[in-house]
Amino acid sequence: MDRKDREKYVFGSILLLANKLQNWGDGVVEDISMKQWLLVMLISKMGTENPTLKEVADFSGTSRQNVKKILEQLEKKGYVKIVKSGIDARALNVSLTKKTYDYFEAHAEKGDKAVNTLFSEIMDDELITTSRTLEKLLVLFGNPPLEEL
């Protein structure tokens, strides 16, 4: 396989894995979907208190409309609060509730176990190489390095 074919293979594999990981994760997390879990986890790592919907969308690499839809579902379940900004009447601010932090704590061990099982056949050097490659790709799209997440 030449470089061009390998690039296409990696690109397609990442997209395919994203779908498979989401389906797998939906079976691991309880009460919320994997997409919902990822979004609240990312918000918790943003380092911004009460970020706007736009900031969350930019940070997560998705549209404002998509973020709003997911957050509205999470708000109905009590995981987030969405309020009009006191600074900009057009903006909406998001805050995580105690329920979210309780959820993280209650499910941490189960999540760690599931991820450990998922990667049990991956050797340390393979994991290091893969994480470095993914980090480079994420940084190309403006995401912070992985260790900041």
Helix/strand layout:
Elements: H1 3-26, H2 34-45, H3 53-60, H4 64-76, E1 80-84, E2 92-96, H5 98-118, H6 124-140
Antiparallel strand pairs: 1-2
Textual characterization of the structure:
- There is one protein chain.
- By secondary structure, this protein is mostly helical.
- The protein has one domain (3-118): Orthogonal Bundle (Arc Repressor Mutant, subunit A), CATH 1.10.10.
- The chain is built from 6 helices and 2 strands, in the order H-H-H-H-E-E-H-H.
- A two-stranded antiparallel ribbon has the order 1-2.
- Strand 1 (80-84) and strand 2 form a beta hairpin.
- Helix 3 packs across helix 4.
- The radius of gyration is 17 Å and the shape is globular.
- The model has no long low-confidence stretch (mean pLDDT 92).
Structural class: mainly alpha
Q: What is the domain tally?
A: 1
Strand and helix order: HHHHEEHH
CATH level-4 homologous superfamily: Winged helix-like DNA-binding domain superfamily/Winged helix DNA-binding domain
Gross CATH architecture:
Orthogonal Bundle
Q: What value does the average pLDDT take?
A: 92
Q: Which CATH class applies here? A: Mainly Alpha
Low-confidence stretches: none
The first-to-last residue Cα distance is 34 Å
What is the helical fraction, as a range of percent? 55-70%
Strand content: 5-15%
Main sheet strand line-up: 1-2
CATH fold group? Arc Repressor Mutant, subunit A
Total strands: the figure is 2
Outline: globular
The DSSP helix count reads 6
Q: What integer value in Å does the Rg equal?
A: 17 Å
Largest sheet: 2 strands, antiparallel
